Amino acid sequence: MKGRRTFTRGELTQIKDLIRYKAGVGPDAQKRVRRQIRRLGFYITDFGAISSPQDVDRLVASGQIIVAEAVGGPSRRTARVDTQEESDEDYIIDLCDEILGLCALRQHRFPFLRGDPGKSGTSVTLPVDAYYPSLKLVIEYRERQHTESVRHFDKPYRMTVSGVHRGEQRKLYDQRRREVLPQQGIALVELSCLEFAYDHRKRLLRRRPQDLAVIRDRLSRHAR
Fold first, then answer.
1. What is the DSSP string of 135-173?
2. DSSP letters along 77-136, please?
3. How far apart are CA 106 and CA 26, in angstroms?
4. Is 42 in contact with 103 (CB distance < 8 Å)?
5. If you classify domain 88-218 with CATH, what class do you get?
6. This prediction's pTM
7. pLDDT digit string (tens) for 132-170?
8. pLDDT digit string (tens) for 5-29?
């Protein structure tokens, strides 16, 4: 068994919400949702075919899953180790999940948040780093390419559908998120790499206690 059998009611609610969400998205998004479910210590393969929240309820009723009032985090065997293989964005959103006691929908797309149309007249939806539906909260982690010019990311030699290079388009889309999300009643918190300890490439040093303190302060209005 890779994961846990014991979960709090809050964790089971999050797991069922993610399973319900997974059923309505495409293959790439499903992979991200499965990773989020595993972060909660729940491995679908431990229990066979799980395709709906009702399947989780049946596992509880049969005793295969135990409901506890409070449990610790994932065991040392299943907890994810923070390494540089994990992106800084994932690391920061993991800390946000921990502070808020919720599991974000990562790379979520809203139908009303769209990029500029291409030659065909169609436009794609813009992803957000993390969305917490119950809080109506979006968190965006801004890496160095959001605060300074980085040729590798900006691609100044290539024009986008917006008529500007990627670096300028990124600024346009960041501003669009700032304007559109509040119009839909969704709060936006932007966390910058500059708020945390980082190295010469602005990669985070991952000083967990200090990083948690920064995020806890920034999310104080939203934490339960």
1. GTEEEEEE-GGGTS--HHHH-TTS--TTSS-HHHHHHHH
2. TTSPP--TTS-HHHHHHHHHHHHHTS--EEEEEEEEEE----TTS--PEEEEEEEEGGGT
3. 14
4. no
5. alpha beta
6. 0.65
7. 998 999 999 988 654 555 544 445 567 776 777 777 888
8. 898 877 888 788 888 877 877 777 7
